[in-house]
Amino acid sequence: MGAGEYVLVGAVPGGVGAIETALDWVGRHGLVGESRVAPDTAGNLFVRLVFSSDRPERELRDGFAAIGTQWVSRCEIHSLTRRPRLLVLGSQQTHCAADLLDRWANGLLDVQIAAVVSNHSTLEPVAAAYGVPFTRLRIDATGPAEAEEELRRLVKEHSAELVVLARYMRILSPQLCAWLDGRDVPAINVHHSLLPSFVGARPYRQAATRGVKGVGATAHYVTAELDQGPIIAQQWRSASHLACPGEADLARLGRDAEVAVLAEAVRLHCQHRVLRAGDGTTVVLG
């Protein structure tokens, strides 16, 4: 078995002892060359250490756990060679899902898009062009509860490790959020505003009404509370060249921000560069 590339990520106590222990353990497997460390306000250090090893992932995890100190449980080891499997959810607008498919097909995202799901048919030919299975949720006919049961089935059928809401204009119920959390399957959503501003429906209209001079997009983890999940990435587009930008102007500008920030969030997550802080925010070791 050839050597694979792995990453150790987590939070260790500040000071010399813990980080030296982690570096020593990783160094025995051959540090590849990338290490990132960032402090938090509580005196911890967020670490991301890349290394190579010819041992299986499970054996490496068990070996690191055998160090036995309390902080070890706050660290994880993941393979960087294996591509995470994504379930992409879309709606009538196709730009975010189509962009992810294009980046994946051209080798710009180290993922495997297992399937595309939508409550509209507009994404079906897009998914077909990339040879990706497509499922339509007929929510109007079956109801939201049945649609979410179908989503559960698809997550299991495709062994999805990440659900991506690519302008999926439906709210995931608290029950579905809890189910995904229980399976350790995160969900990432793109919201077309700079959260926490303009939460909920029609954010471009909300922004135009307030006379903003630009538009933003936010990629965040999905939680049961609408648009309140930990933020991963944000982007901004200026509209200052327009005398009085309306909803359509902001939507046109915002499309570029939406696709870029969602792709960036997926990349960061799948490379294990996003760590959860204790206060519910994230630390991005880009």
From TrEMBL:
Entry-linked SUPFAM superfamilies: Formyltransferase (SSF53328)
GO MF: formyltetrahydrofolate deformylase activity
InterPro entries: Formyl_transf_N (IPR002376), Formyl_transf_N_sf (IPR036477), PurU (IPR004810)
Keywords: Hydrolase, One-carbon metabolism
Gene Ontology biological process terms from the UniProt entry: 'de novo' IMP biosynthetic process; one-carbon metabolic process
Any matching Pfam family: Formyl_trans_N
Recorded superkingdom: Bacteria
Domain Formyl transferase N-terminal: 85-240
PANTHER family for the chain: FORMYLTETRAHYDROFOLATE DEFORMYLASE, FORMYLTETRAHYDROFOLATE DEFORMYLASE 2, MITOCHONDRIAL
This protein's name: Formyltetrahydrofolate deformylase
Species this protein is from: Allokutzneria albata
